[in-house]
Records
---
Amino acid sequence: MKNRKHLRMIITAGVALAVTGTSLFMAACNSVGAAHAGKSESRTSVAQGPSGHAEAHTYTDLRLMVRGSQPVSPPNILDYPSDWPKATYSRGVVGESGVGFDPTVNADGDMDVRSLGRAEALPLETKPKVDTALRGNDITRAEKNTELLIIERQRAAERAQNDAIGCGGLITTIDEKQVTVPLKHTDVKGAVAGYISAVTVTQQFHNPYSSKIEAVYVFPLPENAVVSEFLMTIGDRQIRGIIREREQAERIYHQARAQGYTASLLTQERPNIFTQKVANIEPGKAIDINVTYYSTLTYSDGGFEFTFPMVVGPRFNPPTAPGGAGFQPAQQSGIGAVARGDHGASGQPTEVQYLRPTERSGHDIALSLDIDAGVSIEAIESRTHKVDVKRNSESRATVTLTKSDSIPNRDFVLRWQVAGESIKSALLAHSPDARDNNGGYFTMMLVPPKDLASVPRNPVELVFVLDRSGSMDGVPMQQAQTAISRGLSRLQPGDTFQIIDFSNDVSALGAAPIEATDANIGKGQQYLASLDANGGTYMMKGLRAALEFPHDPKRLRFVAFCTDGYIGNEAEILGELHRKLGASRVFSFGVGSCNRYLMDSMARMGSGLATYLSLRDDASTIMDTFFDRISHAPMRDLTVNWSGANVSEVYPSRIPDLFVGRPVILTGRYKGEMPSTIRVAGRVGNEQRTIDVHTARAEVPHASRALSQVWARAKLTEIADQSAWDVNNPELSQAARKVALDYSLMSAYTAFVAVDTAQRTAGDFGTTVHVPVPVPEGVRYETTVQESR
Amino acid sequence: MKALVASILLVAAAVVAGAWSPQPEPRVDNTMPAATTTEFLAYDVVIDAGSEPLSAWQVEVKDTLKHARIVGIEGGQPGPYSGAPHYDPKAIQGEHVIIGAFTTKDAPTGKVRVARLHVMAEGGTPSFTTTITAAAPGGRAFNATLTIQPHTPDAAPGAKP
């Protein structure tokens, strides 16, 4: 998927661009180039800083940077990619000749870049030396309009000083790979009560530049997050955002932006990907955005799991994928993955800009979580991050991310085990207010019967599907191969299996189900080990190959789909899964900091379960857990006897099967009284089983609100699932829009907008600055991110 | 945080449920400035509680000419009502806003700026009708005066109206 177009430039040997111990003027607040032209006599220069005081700056090192064919007009640093150095004190643009340039040092020690066309003489104190970074073999030619930037390499101490808001002299430190971003810090504070979490995410934006900016940040939230609150904080003023239809919110935002008002807009690109825009941030100013969401936690095998995604993985968009299939509005399609500064290169309406492997941003993250498990907590563990755990009581704890682990480049996953038999099936209801005609809401957790684990399974037909696209290269591929290898070794006589792998194309171990003999398993292991990861993620090919595979009716068919899910055509995949599912059950294995929205949706629509395999997990253990689950018959065909209660709109409308160790959560509405006990019936093998569920009332106010919003979110999910295959049904989008607006929820059709109309900033809206992010841990930039130069 | 969330949500629930009654008759506020084609305006929501302690309030504001769209709701002056109040999401779809808040301590008296409305006005001047319900400690309703007044941009942040 990579599209690298090298910039070529001639550099004469012996030319010096980097100097040490040079003392030169720097525009602390970045008047850039023009302010310094012709000052060749300078050694130390003085300029007016933002405070109006004279400021001096000493350079320690200089570097030459280039940028591809992009004209500079007007000559302002903010015309460069957002995170390019503010400390650039000179620049040049390759002129008509287009034959390259020959920067030399003249007798006065000045670098002469006049051959660039519109160039400026640079005052240098000592004879510089060649910047080795620009002597690569690929740099042999400069194209017209190529920009040249002379940049200071700043000392760490100075950088720390300049990092303060208001200085405006923030500098990209090329050697130390640090780049400026307008998102300074993300603070995550969560509270867990039982299996519901309420989380507030605060994004601290600032403007370290010398003129106004609009900050744009594409970020992830949990796929089941019920985003219901949005606040913009300017100083000590707090403005609550308004939920509106997306198009309307966007129009308001653009009007406010154009007129110079500080405004913010939150849109949803996928259930787990959001775009935050903040317009008219004045130099030196800071604006906080608070987003609050609820979510239900996953419970499995005796423990709860809290997940917070920190970075959007680089998505692949198959060229043949239709834009906007299913739940997404028509104008949306893929999500591009481009290099920092390559805005627009992907052609997708939503783009994530990624830091190069040698770069880091100053954006960090803090996270704390207060857990009230309601039952005794036996152990708390994070395999993905270092955490400090403070036990407040048997059932309560506070977990904090350590400061040494504050780079947001992978999902945060926290798991706490609770006392053995403490989790039982239960229904939590919110008592409706007598004046509220809508009635009440409930959630119900169905825990599998204990004796489920004693019921053996029938022979299975297990189809392993392995994503071997470029994004899986390296550790993710190794993890997936280890897991599948373990799975092969767990097959029993009478089972059959198949291995299907895909990237640009699809291949398989065999043309028909293969008997799970020792010899065949050995062949499967060999085949698996021979697979390399490269190419695009043409998941549709892999999915079709897995689901169109001839089915043996004597065996239960399980499809284990191992992927990071880094695709932009989720709706297309889910629609096809629905159409082709047949008798199969799809179990998704999300590898690394994967696309959990896709993983969960595939499992939900595929009547299976999602399993997550982080790069720090033991892959064999994860696969063993999966086998333990499928090695026993699930409780299926579940029906609920509501004992005459007036219950409606229960989601999911088709109750999922209960597998060993994995409860199911239902949510619904009711009027009147809820009986004290609800009975759920189902079938295990050929036997009938029942589960008695006791009801309880949610007395805490925020739990009541959470229940209604969790229900609304479940309804949106149900509509979204149907939209994936019922793509031309306009009633679905109308229904989704109404639910989202009525319950003040983010969705593909709604957005939050907030405008500060009390103060108007001067001038136009400034420059749009995109926040670049690191590729997720373990993912290779070179195989996943599109570069235009 | 939970306590904060709980108190906020209590207010939200009360707002949505229309907790305070009876509702006084709407009145027309004619103090609005003229608006151009698309203009962004701020209005301070000021309640004069007189000598009564303002423990709870609920306000409904509606532009009868349908020029105004609410684009943000800000908290009031420093004190118990400085936080941005919750709004009724269904009401906002009809381009009128119902907001409210309560405090269990230090209920202010006299004129109190309880909120600021941020508005985008399109095609004309908004003309607001308002209703107010005010309550003293214990939920006792009392008569209070509501004014929706254009915000003066030069006022220092947090200054009393």
---
Amino acid sequence: MKFRLMLLSAALALLAVSAASALLPPSEDYQPSNPYWNGLESFFKAVKATSINPAYEKVAPENSVLFVIGPSVNFTQLRVEALKEYLLEGGTLVLMDETGAVNPVLSGLGLNVSVDGHPMLDPVFYYGSWRMPKIINVVGGDLTSGVENIALNLPSTLNIKGSGLTVLAYSSSFSFLDLDGNSEPSAGEPTGPFPIAAVANYGKGRLILFSDSSIFLNSVISLGDNLKLLHNIAGEKAVFVDVSVWQSTPQLAYRNAVLSVYRVFSAPEFRYSLAFATVTVIYMLTHKEKPIPGVDEEVDELLRRHPSWNRRLLEALKEARDRVVQRG
Amino acid sequence: MKAHKPIEKAFAVLTILIVVAGLLAYSLIQLWAPLKPMVRHVNPASEAEQPPLPTFLALLVTNVFDSLIGGNYTATAEQLKTLGAAYIPERYRFIADRFTQLLNDASSLLNDTENLLDQAEALIALGRGEEAKPLLSKASAKLASANSTCIELKSACMELAKTFSLPTDELNRRVDELGRVIAELYGRLLRLLEIVEKQNTLEDSYLTVDAEPKTVWTGGSIEVSGRLYTAKDALKGRSVQIYVDGAGLAQAVTDDEGEFHAKISLPYIYKPTIPVQARYIPKGLDSEPYKPSASNIVEVSLLYVKPAIKAETVGEALPGKTFTLNGSVEAERPLPYSAVKVSWAGSSLTLSLDDGCFTATLYTPEDIPDGEYSLKVEAPAWKIFAPAQATIQVTVQRLPLNVTLQPPIVVFAGFPSNLNGKIVYSHEGFNVTVRAVFAGQAYTAYSSGEFSVGLAVPLTVFSGYQDYEVYVSPDLPWYRSVALKGSILVVNPFTILVPFGLVSALSLKLSRGKKTGEAEPEEGFQRQEAPVKAYSVASGLEWLIDMYWQAVVIVSRLTGVEMKPSMTMREYLNAVGSRLGSFKAGFEALTVAAEKALYSPAVSAEEVESARKALEQLKVAHVEV
């Protein structure tokens, strides 16, 4: 009895935790369904973006924009080659990173540009905090049409060494690279203007590079002209976000597993099977002969007093007696 | 009430266990979480508000002042815009806004003042001091406003410096410099007013001008003559400036009669008419007695050859292909040059003229998007030949590609299927690359006519409609790529069979269970199933048990002792035996027979017979009673 109770409790607890993990929105960075400050829910809604894992799902490069936002996993050579192929075939690839994680991709593509990796702060043009610089030097072009300000959040800068890249935006001349991490401009720290966004034609496609992955977060997208910038980049194309570049937390992995199970059960075959099973069970239950009240209690009482007696025999005797009583 | 207690207890235990299990699971998940990853961004809502760095903000403010003091009002406007973009905490916003507004007003007022003074100065130079007076009056008012704005600006500056810890001295110095600029403008205004007042006391001078011929070839020369005089006398030996088309081209000195003559070589101007005017600006001693004067304006018509360029394209402008441009340059006189410049699609080339005609083969870049582009042909200016230009709009439009697609109606997961298509050519054959994306898989095929893309839907895809996208990219750049979209029904037999099979088995089992009227045995009960068979009623003797229960009913009525559920057959016999009297033996026989029917493999015929008789006796006795 106790074992059964514990098993039932564990099952119910697992169900409760699973339901909570699936129903409660995630709070991890960049998650498409994260409605909090660090999520990308607004981004996904704004451009009707789709999450993809390029390892399992392919997209047609001709009419799509692929965003790689804040990667936290290493890029394998295979993955770099896949991105290269995507660009060569006409896709638009948007790389957004402030840590330098995309540098292997950039060098793999043969581009003389890299993300510095050090935080860039601006003590004059910013949104509330020096760590959230405001870009006011936006170079004109189709991508920046109608964009006057870009809000950043703890960005870095681009080191452009070669030609072939067109800078889209520069930080102000007051901005500085915080090399010593004291959040103050110190002697010897490079000062702006720094390039923070650039574009390059690559094959039939186009690469757009930002030295900040936070431009389209829920809490930043509405600042400046970030939303307009996003719409300019997306245009009329289908927008995809590579969700395989983020390191998964156990909570997220569990949530994804639960959602995968849910997706399996929401497939037509499972849905209809469940419906059919439910109808069958309801039918069986409603048409089942009701047991004679009092039988079990009487037999149970006897068994409590005489545990060694046989339940089946007692039930048979009682049944026979009841038949006689009914006839009498 | 007693029966409910165990249920309540179980429910409580269950609830506690669920909560504990839930908490345990959550704690484990939290414990398993990796160390905090690299900080990529900060929460704007939780960031502490920071004021701008005073040193840098001061630099921004002084930049505006410097532009304003330097009289560069365009730069001042830009600097003000930049200053407006700097972060100012909301609680100090009004201080910064007031400062910016005052600076903007000062800039605007000073700019207007300078413009008015410039206009007035030009009029005064022409001896039209009276016309300049209203302008000077306006300038004076503007300057007064600028001065009061500057005074306000000083207090706003102090407020700003105090709020943002800016260097007060630096800002004060800038405001003082601005005051100096206002003072300088005021000095200039006074000087101009003085000149106007002085001009009123001077003698008017008059100037007339004429030019011959009235029509001349561009680049030719004209004779300009005129007279400078006062109401009393001719002014001799005075220098007169001659302006042609607004530019001072010559200077002439008046003779004894006040007349002047000059031969002016005209530049190559390609305008139908040009104005000729003479101006006299008294200098040195002349500035005391005479007013400046400007002559009448004489219009001189210019002659020049205006070549006409005609151009037309032959054939379509297709990316990656060439088309022909034919044209000619026509003029009244033989052309002095032998080439024209053609600009097309971001590049330009020089074309030789053959008897005024040109022809070119122009290449359209492969990557040029469809649209309308300008093709420009330019002929240079050469002496009397005016420059000529012709622009024609050329439409670049790739040829349509006719692709028919035959997608399968149904695709079974795990089984190969084909997506067929056909390219219909108009007149030339070529290869195409077909790229299809379906159910997360990408497929590529190359073809020169019909194509077939082998679809292989993995078993992980569930049944339902899946979208497909097919892109047909021709190898020839002058054909348009085609994108086709649609959806195909995917049926996954495995994912259908498994759940439906399970459900069918379940329902079958349930329906069988119902037919036999047996409830599903419980786990604990199944363990007792084997010994149950040893105690079952001997086959064919169920009626004997029935008979016993009939007897029990009769006996209970005769004796008034009911058989309790806890009683065994033997216990009941003992309980009623003393009250049955003569019927005891019969009921005993019946009890023994029933016990044997239950516990023994067989009951003898004698025992059955005596049991039946005993029941008959009991029935009779029951009836009698």
